[in-house]
Design brief:
alpha/beta, 8-stranded parallel β-sheet, 19 strands, 31% helix, 16% strand
Length: 511
C-alpha cells in the first residue's frame, strides 16, 4: 500500500549537472557560485544579428516542449539566457559559458561557437530536456564558467547511403544526433556499386536506374536535387558542412550499369546487390569517362556550398596502377575548377595528391609499414590527413562477435578501443599540423534504418567527437566512461537505442 502524502519522505533536492560532466570535455572548467534556474519568466536574449537569433530560436525550440515555458527570443532586457557575439579568444567554433543566479551567458566570435555552446548548455540541463512533452524540472544550470575551443577543425561522421538508402528525414535525424556532440562535418557516401543516390541532370539514368536497388535487392532510392539541398540546408542550420562523395574509379558498378559507354568493353554489367568490393572500375582510357566525371563534379559542386568534394579512390583493385594515376591526375583538377578542395581515401597518396588535398586514412593498426610510410610522406609533403582508422572508429564494426549488426573485417571495436587513442600521435612521422581531424564512418552493408545506425553509433560516436574536440591531455578512459554512462538517460529521452557495453558503468552514478 502506498504511503500517505503526509508520511512520504521528502524528495531529494535537485542538484545541477557538474560543469565537467559534458561530452566532449571542455578546454577549461571553473565551477562556482549559485546555479541558474530556468523559470516561466526566462527570456532568451540575443543581439541584433540574424545568426544569433537563429541559434536563439533553435535553443527555444528545444526548451519549450519539456519546460512548458514561452521562453521568448528577444533583443530586449537583461538576465535569463543570453547569446552574444563578441571578439575574443574563441576562434571560429569556440565559446565561453558563464552561469550564475542571474542568468547564463554564452559568448562566441561566430555563430558556430554559440551553437556549440548551446549543446553544452543542453548537457548541463536534466536529460528530460530532450523530451517533447512537459516534464517536472527543475531546470538548473550549475554555476561557474566554461571556456572551450576545439583541438581540430575537422570532426566528421560519414553516412553510407549507397549500400542501403536513407531518406532525407533519416539523415536529418542523424544530423541532430551529431550536432549534440559538436560534430561539424557530414560526409555523405553518395555512390557505390550497389546504388547511385544523387540526381545528375546530364546523366539521368545514374539515379533512376543506378539508384533503383540496394544491398539485398531492396528498392533503393535517390535524392533529387531539392532533397539534397534540403539536407545541406538542415546540416547548415546545425553548423555541419556537407562533404559529398562520389567514389571512383572503383566502387562504380551502379554507374557502369547505367551507361554502357562508361565500360571499357562498351557492355553494361547488371545491377549489383551484394557486398563484395574491388571488382568495378571506370575506364581510364576512354575520353567519355572524363566528360562524365566533369559533369558529375560540376553539378554536385553547384549544389554544395561547402569547401570539399570527396572523390573516393579506395579499393580500386580492378584499375591498374598506371590507370589509377592517370585517372587521379585528370580528375583532381576538375574539383579545383569547380571551386572545391579534393578529399580522397588515403589510397590517393599512391598517385600525386593535388595541392591542398586531404587524404582520409582508414587503415588499421596493423596496416603495412609501406602503406603507412606513403601516407606519412604525403603528409610531410603538405597533404592534410583526416584520421578514420577502421579498427578504431569505423562505426559499422561489430562491438563483439555477438553484435547482431555490422561487419568484423577490421576486428571487433569495443567502446574503450574506439576512444583510447590519440589522433595526433597515431601515425608516427606525421607533422602535427598535417592532422586536420577525425571522422567516424558508418558503412551500411548491414544497416537498413535509423535504429540500426543509432545502435552502432552509440556509445562510440561521442568518444570520436571528444577525440576531435578535446585536448590530448584530457583523454582518460577511466574518467571518460563515467561521463559516457551519464549520457544514457539523455539517449533514452531522445529515443536512441544504444549498445550497453559492459565496459561502461551504466545505471549508476557513472563514477
Amino acid at each position: 500500500m502506498a504511503a500517505s502524502v503526509t508520511g512520504a519522505a521528502p524528495a531529494p533536492a535537485a542538484s545541477p549537472t557538474p560543469l565537467d560532466r559534458v561530452i566532449p570535455a571542455p578546454a577549461s572548467v571553473a565551477p562556482g557560485g549559485s546555479p541558474y534556474r530556468i523559470t516561466r519568466g526566462t527570456h532568451i536574449r540575443v543581439d541584433g544579428s540574424r545568426e544569433t537569433r537563429s541559434v536563439g530560436e533553435y535553443l527555444a525550440k528545444i526548451l519549450r516542449p519539456p519546460t512548458g515555458y514561452r521562453l521568448p527570443v528577444t533583443a530586449q532586457g537583461a538576465g535569463g539566457i543570453r547569446l552574444r557575439l563578441a571578439e575574443g579568444p574563441f576562434g571560429a567554433e569556440g565559446y565561453r559559458l558563464d552561469s550564475g543566479r542571474a542568468g547564463v551567458t554564452i559568448t562566441a566570435a561566430r555563430a558556430a561557437g554559440l551553437f556549440h555552446g548551446v549543446q553544452t548548455l543542453r548537457q548541463l540541463l536534466p536529460a528530460a530536456v530532450e523530451k517533447d512533452s512537459v516534464q517536472p524540472g527543475p531546470w538548473l544550470v550549475a554555476g561557474g564558467t566554461i571556456k572551450d575551443t576545439p583541438r581540430y577543425g575537422w570532426r566528421g561522421a560519414m553516412l553510407d547511403v549507397s549500400r542501403h538508402f536513407f531518406t532525407v528525414e533519416q539523415v536529418k535525424r542523424y544530423i541532430d544526433q551529431l550536432a549534440l556532440y559538436k560534430i561539424n562535418k557530414l560526409h555523405l557516401h553518395l555512390s557505390d556499386d550497389q546504388g547511385w543516390r544523387i540526381a545528375i541532370d546530364s546523366w539521368p539514368r545514374l539515379a533512376t536506374y543506378g539508384g533503383s536497388t540496394e544491398v539485398g535487392g531492396g528498392p533503393g532510392g535517390f535524392y533529387t536535387k531539392a532533397d539534397y539541398r534540403e539536407i545541406v540546408r538542415y546540416a547548415t542550420s546545425r553548423h555541419l558542412e556537407v562533404v559529398p562523395e562520389i567514389d571512383m574509379p572503383g566502387h562504380t558498378n551502379a554507374a557502369l550499369a547505367s551507361y554502357a559507354e562508361l565500360n571499357c568493353d562498351g557492355v553494361a554489367p547488371p545491377l549489383y546487390t551484394g557486398t563484395e568490393v574491388g571488382f568495378s572500375s571506370l575506364c581510364a582510357g576512354k575520353e567519355i569517362t572524363y566528360d562524365f566525371v566533369d559533369d558529375v563534379i560540376r553539378e554536385l559542386a553547384a549544389l554544395t556550398p561547402g569547401r570539399y568534394l570527396h572523390i573516393g579512390g579506395d579499393e580500386a583493385h580492378s584499375t591498374s596502377h598506371e590507370d589509377y594515376v592517370t585517372f587521379m591526375d585528370r580528375v583532381q583538377p576538375m574539383v579545383a575548377k569547380y571551386g572545391k578542395t579534393v578529399v580522397g581515401w588515403h589510397q590517393l597518396t599512391g598517385a600525386t595528391p593535388a595541392k591542398g588535398a586531404l587524404a582520409q586514412y582508414w587503415g588499421l593498426d596493423g596496416t603495412s609499414a609501406e602503406e603507412k610510410a606513403r601516407v606519412v610522406k604525403a603528409a610531410q609533403g603538405g597533404t592534410g590527413l583526416i584520421l578514420s582508422p577502421a579498427d578504431r572508429v569505423y562505426l559499422d564494426m561489430k562491438y563483439t562477435k555477438e553484435t547482431p549488426l555490422g561487419l568484423s573485417w577490421a576486428g571487433y571495436v569495443e567502446v574503450k578501443r574506439s576512444y583510447d587513442w590519440d589522433p595526433g600521435a597515431y601515425l608516427p612521422g606525421v607533422p602535427g599540423g598535417a592532422v586536420r581531424g577525425v571522422e567516424a564512418p558508418m558503412w551500411s552493408e548491414t544497416l537498413e534504418n535509423s535504429e540500426h545506425v543509432e545502435f552502432m553509433a552509440f556509445p562510440r560516436l561521442p568518444g570520436v567527437a571528444e577525440l576531435g574536440w578535446s585536448s590530448a591531455a584530457s583523454h582518460d578512459w577511466e574518467r571518460y566512461k563515467g561521463r559516457l554512462a551519464a549520457q544514457a538517460e539523455r539517449w533514452d529521452a531522445l529515443g536512441i537505442d544504444y549498445y550497453r557495453s559492459p565496459q561502461v558503468p551504466w545505471g549508476g552514478s557513472g563514477k
